[in-house]
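Reopening closed ticket. The problem is back. First fold of the pair:
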Amino acid sequence: MISKTQLQNTLVKVRRHIHSNPELGNQEFSTTAYLAKIFKDFGIKTYRPSKTGLVAQINGTAKSSGKNKCLGIRADIDALPIQENTKKPYSSKKPGVMHACGHDANSAIALGAALLLNGRKSEFSGQAKFIFQPNEETAGGATGMIDSGVLKNPSVDAIIGIHVNPWLAAGTVGLKPGEMMASVDKFTVEILGRGTHGAYPHKGQDTILIAAQFINLLQSVVSREIDPVEPVVISVGSISGGNMFNVLADRVELCGTVRTLNEAVHKNVRKLIERKLSHVTKAYGAKYTFKYDVLGHPLKNDPVILELCRKSAVKVLGAGKVKVLNKPSMGGEDFSEYLRLVPGCFIFFGSACAEPYPWHSEFFDIDERMLSSASAVVSGIALDYLG
């Protein structure tokens, strides 16, 4: 069995290698090959469910009195299009690409848990299936892995997702009962009118004015058409239209995002937005196009699996280092797609540095001392579930 010191040294090396060689979504060929080689060196079989995804499976050897269970453990592996500015010896070697969300650490933690379980196969039955998922940062990563069959052969009975958190103290665990993270939707609106000279606005439709009124109306969806106790965010992030100071634009395009925690609200908000758009364009005699993409559903933890994770983490770390989070996040996480099919829990592992920076910051880094303890928690959860 690998010692704690050996494990920590291995995980730091792995994390720094992945951090120095980041790859964007669906381009993680070297990352996957690197992880696969390490698993092979430790005698652990892997397979590629997709061009850049990886699955490693640890089979327990203990006899089971009933049906063998399978636990999925998911870690993401992709980087972001950000220029790193940490100036560390292990900083990104690729201009404009950086592990600014900690997926390098997530991968190392999952790898470490697999190495620990591999040395304790006689203590559990069933399977621990480690899913290294590409392309979490943009749409399609989780659904692509699911479509490739990672939840089958053997069928996954429960699943956990792991992620470092720069706001929690290093060496701690954060768990959130119920709704933990929001849905992620994208809408694209095109407002179409008749352009005219700015001196004669009555001879056309002012699409910029219409767009401005639509943006204002969006906030009435939040404040007047949805239960105030249900969190909803509607934000417009980009708008473009016109190219001359004295000509009214015949077209304006705007894009935005919607975040919700309640699935029923999530299903309804699209209709409410389009209704506002339809009314305001009709009032001015203009037309519109409306495109709405669901990029991720609300993430809701299963209470039974969450309690298992909590007890396992307390066993490994002590009660003082296991935090129950009070507030959900309006950020998104495509681990929610697995939870629509399999009960599970998303776990935050505290990784705060002396001077923490948020996810997606050019200065993002982690306190690497948390790596081996996080792996111990993940392997402990697997042993408690499968043992």
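Second fold of the pair, where the issue appears:
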Amino acid sequence: MPTLTFYNLAEEKKQKLVAAAEQEFSRVPVYEASIANIVRQAGIPRGSFYQYFEGKEDVFFFLLNTQAQKRRRTFFSLLEKHGGDIFQTMTEMYAILLQEIPAQENLQFLRHAFLNMTHKVEQSLAEMFSYGDSNEMIDGLRPYIKMSALNTRSEDELVHVMQIIIAVTMRNIMEKFSRNLSDEQAIENYKIELSLLQKGLCK
């Protein structure tokens, strides 16, 4: 994560460095990315970069976590909109993600993240839908989820429900990008899988 020195930078300098990193990670996956390209685009000395981040993976996961936090706000807003219905919420959230990632050039690094998934990347991306450990997940979701509609015996089972839905969502996004599916086909596939889950998880 960024150092205090990074957070103390003037906002314009911070945004310039973030934009340069987003551009580089949108160009290539993180393992092919070049710190030299980031500092050149940001207009800073290479040594300065290491005052802000430990390395390219550090800045990459900072960007990933930042985007996950933004989309988590969208997720909870959609939960409210749909009266706590997790399946309607995830269907709309999925469609939004498919529209946003290809449409914004600086978000292409999210596409690379989905196509080059590791356990750490998956954990960061999953924070779009919740955060923290199991207890924090339950505490965060309890005010929003319509528990009475789910075929669960306890709040602990809600964690497993979310893990299943998130795993299905991640796999569908990966498949969308790896197979270059149209948005319509990707959404249809996702709806079919969510419908199958819904039959087993809802009353």
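Update: turned out to be a display glitch only; the data is intact. The chain has two domains: 4-57, 61-201. The domain at 61-201 is CATH 1.10.357 (Tetracycline Repressor; domain 2). Please close again.
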